[in-house]
Amino acid sequence: MSEIRFRDVHKRYNSSVPDTIRKVDLDIDKGEFVVFVGPSGCGKSTLLRMVAGLEDITSGELSIKGQRMNETPPSRRGVAMVFQSYALYPHMSVYDNMAFGLKQAKTDTATVEQRVRKASKILQLDPLLKRLPKELSGGQRQRVAIGRAIVREPDVFLFDEPLSNLDASLRVQTRLEIAKLHKDIGTASMIYVTHDQVEAMTLADKIVLLNAGEAVQRDGSVAQCGAPLQLYHHPVNKFVAGFIGSPKMNFIGAQLVGAANGVATAKVAEVEVQAEVDASRLAGHSMVTLGVRPEHVQIVPPGGSNVVAGLVAFLEQLGEASYIYVRLAGGELVTVRESGQSSCSVGSAVSLYFPPHCMHLFDENDVATPRTARPEILGQPLVAGVSISRATTHAS
């Protein structure tokens, strides 16, 4: 049985405005780490607060451990929430902040001591237990807030953008600590809200990517749900493909020429480009969009199949990698990611190779066609400057 179940859940604040949350059907298993991610305003925090009992459900059903929770008050749901704000009591020590909820619930002293010490050890807070919040760094304060949730020993942990107030280095450190926490407390389910897809990709067992705008009313709130690499390699539509991945996927307008044997051929700036996808359901000569991720595009000598010419418009040298922005004849700007320092220069002519096994294809309604490349090579990096599919015919 799923630990948490959403069944046709809707949230509407006012009858005169569209639903904020629409048609959510979702299962979260015991011990699973699920990340709600999406653009601002998509309702990810609202969905989390519905689990906590801080938002009412307009229609549908939410259950936890098989029990309907729609009318159950927050204190009886077996959940603990960590907010974006630390919300620590400034006059209390770290120990007392973590113990406060238990003491309010009249938990016996020995149990309070045992739970606080256990949480403190997990979060490496032992040396800080006598300090006040003002004597802690931002990362330490957030760990105390997490510890306050741990001591309750809930069935479900809820995290509402807990790292957004931290600087970059602390975000990485605390993210690793949350991942370790999930491993140490493997029986509790965790739901984590973020707008940062790096957090989503690195922490999640399952990502729930939420729609925004008109797509919510048309398709429901959930754009796609699955393992991180499932969304990365097999996005169901152009929105998912463009949201997951940084830099985002390149999109190139094209005209479908033909589709046979799991390979589609489309014309880009008078050049035929092949993609290993099943586009047999699409009408011939229909307008489509090709997609390819920056790390899969290669700069190669002119000529050959799947090679399109362009001019370097911008160049970003980051040290460990370079991003080359190439303008194609049709006006599309294609991002190319190269390791290390690039030898390209702004204004120079380059030729881009699009590996067929790395390509995506979206129809006129932005729906993805199924990829047909062998599962073991989908998304693999290029080897020595040569794509897997061309390695037998092109030297590195």
TrEMBL record:
This is Multiple sugar transport system ATP-binding protein. The keyword NADP does not apply. Gene3D superfamilies: 2.40.50.100, Nucleic acid-binding proteins, P-loop containing nucleotide triphosphate hydrolases. The keyword Protein biosynthesis does not apply. Keywords: ATP-binding, Cell membrane, Hydrolase, Membrane, Nucleotide-binding, Sugar transport, Transport. Its EC number is 3.6.3.-. GO terms for molecular function: ATP binding; hydrolase activity.
